[in-house]
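Final report, closing paragraph on structural work. Over the funding period we assembled a curated collection of sequence-structure pairs, and we close with a single example.
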Amino acid sequence: MESWVREQGGSAHSSRVREAGFTEYQMRRAVREGTLERVRRSWLLVPEVDPRRRAAASVGGRVTCVSAAALAGWWDVGAAEVHVALPRTASRFDRVGVQVHCAQGPVPVHPRAAVDPVLGVLFQVARCRPLIEARAIWESAVRHGAVELDTLARVRWRCDAANRLARTVRGRSDSGPETVFVERMRAVGIDVRQQVWVDGHPLDGVIGERLAIQIDGFRHHSAAGDRRRDLAADARLALRGYTVLRFDYHQVMVDDRHVEDTVLAALAQGLHRADHRATGRG
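Its predicted structure, as stored:
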């Protein structure tokens, strides 16, 4: 039984454990022997279960929104609280450390599910988070193969924010910072083409004809080899007439004014144009 609960992600409601063919006696014995823990009387957890699943079980709810997105390996916004879905009638639970979502998503959910389904997670994200964060998570879900673009377009979301995301998400960003960068550029009227192949490799973005954008992730350049590889790639792009602007995670996510000013300065110098070098010599 412990193995079965582990296969479910480390937490399961006792009713679902019984549906799987296990008896109440087996559940009590597993708890007594310490291979499983019982939380809120009806939830069974493996001792090392993810803290987000434990928090949801402790209030009798489901992991949802940004917490479920992070649990699935999508873009993680680093939320301090665990986001949990609960019915509006829920009572007698400790709200400390959790953010409760009561809105009904676009798909039915098993009443004893431990985590919201994909479309339910995206629905809660759209309602809960700022547009840039929400788009980063939706893009990440598409890139991870959790949902297809045509599915997003056909869902009856019953939420303006979700409808807007379903119309505009394209699944082209490789990471959250890429989505954030593109959104901030759009906000000032700059179009960024994503995942453009040049020199046999995809660029995170291209502005105009010759301004290449590369966004380094949080753990990028942890090894010297990574740094040398990127320097070589930047040199090849320069020889092909591209100007490369490379930004790291902190710059995109925290120092966005620097990023915006740098791109605007490059555009003012015509670095996005194929003929900018010839113009500069003139």
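The chain has 14 helices and ten strands. The first strand starts at residue 11 and ends at 13. We thank the funder for supporting this effort.
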